[in-house]
Every structure is written in structure tokens, then in C-alpha cells.
UniProtKB/TrEMBL annotation:
InterPro entries, alphabetized: EmrE-like
Keywords: Membrane, Transmembrane, Transmembrane helix
SUPFAM superfamilies attached to this UniProt entry: Multidrug resistance efflux transporter EmrE (SSF103481)
Record protein name field: DMT family transporter
Residue spans crossing the bilayer: 44-68, 88-106, 112-135, 147-166, 172-191, 206-226, 232-255, 267-286, 292-310
Top-level taxon: Bacteria
Statement: the UniProt record of this protein carries the keyword Transcription regulation: no
Species this protein is from: Actinomadura vinacea
Length: 325
């Protein structure tokens, strides 16, 4: 049946390729966020949520064109088999609404974290580290209670060191928004497995539609916050946002579903959590901020935990993807 959810056994996963895809996705997202902060939010006097809505809208248009290109060509040539498409069943519509709202909350809170004054590397560390907690649920179900409890505690310690919670100069508000962003990411991993397991074209179309919903939702958020949708615009800003849309949203989302098809959610979250260390040199190059000793220590701790969890994951009992859900 069209859009039917696939079922995989552990042997069907491709861990090396899935790890490469997951790291590529998070790296592209990292670079996109950095460019967005430096060249759109800091260099120009514009409303943060408003430009986020436009960037997301541009990304949605590109994703829709890529996902529905088969249908577009079919309208003109009217020959051959009808291209695969996402079916708008009640379950798919409900899933679109849920994940669309998670997109709004996640992308909006990420923007507010970036405008809070917190270092980009710290924002990324929190956003990319929280989804590793998904492993704790898997470890608990597998009977690894010590690992299930210790991993979140160690991650919280690493995050606390990274943002230097004892330093009153740290942006507490930025940390709160970054934690909210990471929490939305965790919920996304939980709710998105159904569309990830759809056939490739249908899952691409789903991603494009939830991005469009996200753009609409962030636009409403910006208006409710009293932001102007027209102030400060220029062709330079437009092309900046077009680049950010391609690098920070389109490319990561195109890779995302393919990475998730290759590995279980827990392993995917672990790979994404290895990204924070890469945020330090990006922060240095893009913003000229030299990493502090505590940032290096905290992010090293988070990445070490992720590597240890990856090794532990290999020892956990194997099960089917259906059981994981």
C-alpha cells in the first residue's frame, strides 16, 4: 500500500553509512545556524522571528519543488506511471499537524537562543546533546538501568560546564531557549518515526509540507510578538536567507530522512550529539570567539559520553524497528 510503513530488523540497518549521513546533516545545520546568526541577525537590523519565517518559507518552497517534481512533470507529459505521492489520510494529517507545531517551537526557540547573547557553540551544544536522552529509554527497557540513569546526569553535567552556569555573565535566558529547542528536537524524534519509514518520495513530501507549516506558524508568532515583516529588507538579506535556507534547512532535511532510515533513533541521536565539538572552531571562525577552557571541557565530556553510549549500544539486545517504536 502506498505510504505503508516499513519494518526493519537490526540486520537491515546500515550503521556506518547512517552515521556518516547523521554527522553530515548536523554539520550542515551547524554551518547554516552560524551563517544565519552572523550575517542575518547580527549584521542587519531586522526582526529575528520575521527573518526566520522568511528563511523557513524559502526552504519550504525549495523542498516542495524537489519533493513534487515528479508530479509537476507528470502534469505536462501525462505519460507513464503516476508518480508516488503522500496520501492525506487522517493519520498523516494528524502527524503533519503535530510535527509542524514541533517545527514551529523548535525553530523559533533556536532563533531566540541565538539572539540572547549566548555563544553559538553553547546553543548548539545544548540543542544537539538533549536528544541523546532518547538512549536512556532504550537502555532502561534493555535492563541497563545504571546507564539509563547515569547518561542524562553526565550530559547535564557537560551542558552545565559548557554554558558555565556559575558565571553570572552567562545568558540564562539563552540557555532556557536552547533547552526548549533541544526538547522539541527530542519530541520530534519520538513522533517522526512514522513518516521517516514511509517510502522515500512520500517522506520527502511530508518534510516539505511540515516545513511550510513551520514557516506559517513562525510568521504568526512574529506577528503576535509585534515584529515587522517588512522593516530592514534588502536583496542582500534575501540572498543571505536563500543561502541559509539551502545550507541550514534544505540540505539537512534532505539528508535527515535518509539517515533515519539507516539506523535506529537511539543511534541517530548519539551521532548527532557528537557535533558540539565541531561548533567550537565554527564559532571561532564565524564570530571570532576563542573557545574557553570550560567550553572545551564540557563539549569534550558530551562527545565522550556519546562515543561511550555508541559502544554500549552495540552490546544492547537487538530488536526490530517496530519494537523500538
Amino acid at each position: 500500500m502506498e505510504n505503508a510503513v516499513s519494518r526493519k530488523s537490526e540486520t537491515d540497518y546500515n550503521y556506518p553509512k547512517g552515521a556518516l549521513y547523521a554527522l553530515s546533516e548536523s554539520t550542515a545545520k551547524l554551518l547554516g545556524r552560524s551563517w544565519f546568526k552572523v550575517h542575518a541577525l547580527q549584521s542587519l537590523q531586522v526582526a529575528a522571528l520575521a527573518v526566520t519565517a522568511v528563511e523557513y518559507g524559502l526552504a519550504a518552497m525549495i523542498l516542495l519543488a524537489l519533493a513534487y517534481q515528479g508530479q509537476i512533470w507528470y502534469l505536462f507529459r501525462r505519460s507513464g506511471d503516476r508518480p508516488q505521492r503522500l496520501r492525506f489520510t487522517r493519520a498523516n494529517l494528524a502527524n503533519l499537524a503535530i510535527i509542524g507545531l514541533l517545527n514551529v517551537g523548535g525553530r523559533g526557540s533556536a532563533t531566540l537562543a541565538l539572539t540572547s547573547g549566548m555563544a553559538l557553540a553553547s546553543v548548539n551544544a545544548i540543542g544537539f546533546a538533549i536528544p541523546i536522552l532518547l538512549f536512556s529509554a532504550e537502555a532502561w527497557r534493555a535492563g541497563l538501568r545504571t546507564a539509563a540513569i547515569s547518561v542524562p546526569l553526565l550530559v547535564a553535567t557537560g551542558l552545565g560546564v559548557t554554558i558555565e552556569v556559575w558565571d553570572m555573565k552567562s545568558s540564562i535566558l539563552g540557555a532556557v531557549f536552547a533547552i526548549v529547542n533541544g526538547s522539541f528536537g527530542l519530541l520530534y524524534l519520538v513522533f517522526s518515526r512514522r513518516f521517516v519509514d514511509m517510502p522515500e518520495k512520500a517522506s520527502d513530501q511530508f518534510q516539505a509540507l511540515v516545513t511550510l507549516i513551520g514557516a506559517f506558524g513562525i510568521t504568526v508568532w512574529a506577528l503576535l510578538a509585534g515584529e515587522s515583516l517588512t522593516a530592514g529588507w534588502s536583496w542582500g538579506l534575501f540572498f543571505t536567507l536563500l543561502f541559509v535556507a539551502g545550507m541550514g534547512t534544505v540540505l539537512p532535511r534532505f539528508i535527515h530522512t535518509r539517515a533515519r532510515k539507516m539506523v535506529p533513533d537511539g543511534f541517530y541521536a548519539i551521532m548527532v550529539s557528537l557535533t558540539p565539538l565541531m561548533g567550537l572552531p565554527v564559532d571561532w571562525v564565524m564570530e571570532g570567539k576563542v573557545p574557553t577552557f570550560w567550553q572545551i571541557l564540557g563539549m569534550s565530556l558530551i562527545s565522550t559520553i556519546a562515543l561511550g553510549v555508541a559502544r554500549l549500544k552495540e552490546q544492547m539486545p537487538t530488536k526490530t524497528a517496530a519494537e523500538e517504536r
